[in-house]
Design brief:
Blueprint lengths: L1 H44 L13 E2 L8 E7 L17 H6 L17 E6 L5 E5 L4 E5 L6 E5 L12 E3 L5 E5 L4 E5 L5 E5 L6 E7 L4 E6 L4 E6 L5 E5 L17 E6 L5 E5 L4 E5 L5 E5 L12 E6 L5 E5 L4 E5 L5 E6 L11 E7 L4 E6 L4 E7 L2 H18 L10 H4 L14
Antiparallel strand pairs: 1-2, 2-25, 3-4, 4-5, 5-6, 7-8, 8-9, 9-10, 11-12, 12-13, 13-14, 15-16, 16-17, 17-18, 19-20, 20-21, 21-22, 23-24, 24-25
Length: about 425
């Protein structure tokens, strides 16, 4: 009997072992599946890294040439952190039935560029952008990217703001052809004066800080008006008026737009309908001109903006060709950049260019995407230094020539002359 009981007990223990083994086998995949789910959930919960674009590789000209223009950034709107989302009160069923609109307790909205045109920079490196459609002047802090604004009907009265200019005291000159005047703001962005004398349809402006002159182009008069930058009185006019934009002789203008001044006080004017750049000295005397209609290198098809960098190179924005061309002050073409498109360094409706020579920055404005692009200008001195460094690296890495073997005569050690034999006595 004991043997039968032992056999029954042994069979039961074997059965229990088999059941436990089977249960363990089923539990292992479930545990692994649970672990994989936990890992997946942890991975989904982990913050995803936003891909960062390396703008340092966008340069002109292309490598291996030494870069003279480097893409930096673009500006188009306020930062989202500056904007509060409007909060709407909850609408009840009686409001919905009556069709009433709930009140909002916050009406702050995002301001962004729509038709940027005029450009200027101040001593702090901030970029001022006149936007005709928004009816405001955007002030971009290039370090923090925060935006201040000078708004129509809040800080001043605007109708159609186009041109901007900044003097060395951070006074801002705003050209408004809709009101046929130039409004002057102090460094605190408060309107303090207005210039109206002689203007019909003013367009763009530039300041000669050395000779204390304010230049304002007028597209209806076909002239550039010259004012005293301190008294704001009209001093003289450049160009001939009254010929309905038909004059083409050197020194005459047809719908002039962009104006810029170099460190010698020379004035550069974008003679838009004549597709050329004209140059005058500080007394208004005509010096030279270059350019003609066409789409080849050095040609223009509606030049609008003009700027002069710290080395005296002349940058011209062509509105129809959507490109920037850089010339010497004598009109020799140095480099071209741009073309139709939305990528960095391309344009859609290019209208203006300006230079911040304190920081060697170039800014362009274009209408259709509503943006301002920023570029770093590599100066002549910086380019020369880079060229010398490259030459030094090339010289250091060049294989050294093998030493020439010594000649037999040179290899033979010098012989010491033997003393003369003694003469026998």
């Amino acid at each position: 009997m004991f043997e039968v009981r032992k056999k029954s007990i042994g069979s039961a223990q074997a059965l229990i072992a088999i059941v436990l083994l089977f249960a363990f086998t089923l539990a292992v995949p479930l545990t692994a599946s649970a672990d994989s789910k936990k890992k997946k959930q942890a991975a989904d919960a982990a913050p995803k890294k936003t891909p960062v674009i390396d703008y340092s590789m966008i340069v002109w000209p292309n490598p291996p040439a030494i870069a003279r223009i480097k893409y930096m950034a673009f500006y188009a709107a306020q930062k989202l952190s500056q904007v509060d989302t409007p909060k709407t009160a909850k609408q009840g069923w009686m409001d919905r039935l009556a069709g009433t609109v709930p009140e909002q307790d916050n009406t702050k909205v995002l301001f962004q560029l729509a038709q940027p045109y005029g450009l200027a920079t101040d001593s702090k490196g901030r970029v001022y952008v006149a936007d005709n459609k928004v009816g405001a002047i955007f002030i971009f802090n290039t370090e923090t990217r925060e935006v201040e604004m000078i708004k129509n009907k809040v800080d001043a009265h605007f109708v159609r703001i186009i041109g901007l200019a900044m003097d060395d005291n951070d006074r801002l000159f705003v050209v408004d052809p809709g009101l046929k005047h130039v409004l002057v703001f102090n460094a605190q962005h408060k309107a303090e004066d207005v210039i109206t004398e002689g203007q019909v349809e003013p367009s763009m402006a530039a300041i000669d800080t050395q000779n204390r002159l304010l230049y304002v182009s007028d597209v209806e008069l076909d002239q550039v008006l010259v004012y005293d930058a301190d008294t704001l009185k009209l001093k003289r006019k450049i160009g001939t008026t009254g010929h309905k934009h038909e004059l083409t002789a050197p020194g005459d203008l047809a719908k002039p737009t962009g104006v810029a001044v170099d460190k010698d006080g020379n004035l550069y004017v974008a003679d838009t309908l004549n597709d050329r750049i004209e140059v005058f000295d500080a007394d208004g005397v005509f010096l030279r001109t270059w350019g003609k209609n066409g789409d080849g290198p050095g040609y223009f098809a509606r030049p609008k903006g003009v700027a002069v960098d710290s080395d005296g190179h002349v940058w011209v924005a062509d509105g129809m060709q959507d490109r920037i061309q850089v010339f010497t002050n004598e009109g020799q073409l140095l480099i071209t950049m741009g073309g139709h498109g939305l990528l960095p360094g391309q344009y859609q409706g290019l209208v203006n260019v300006t230079a911040d020579n304190r920081r060697n920055r170039i800014y362009t404005s274009e209408i259709y995407p509503g943006r301002v692009q920023e570029f770093r200008y590599v100066t002549d001195a910086e380019a020369d230094q880079l060229r010398k460094e490259r030459e030094q690296i090339r010289a250091d890495s060049a294989p050294k020539p093998a030493a020439a073997p010594a000649s037999a005569a040179e290899a033979k050690p010098p012989q010491t002359p033997e003393p003369p034999a003694a003469v026998p006595k």
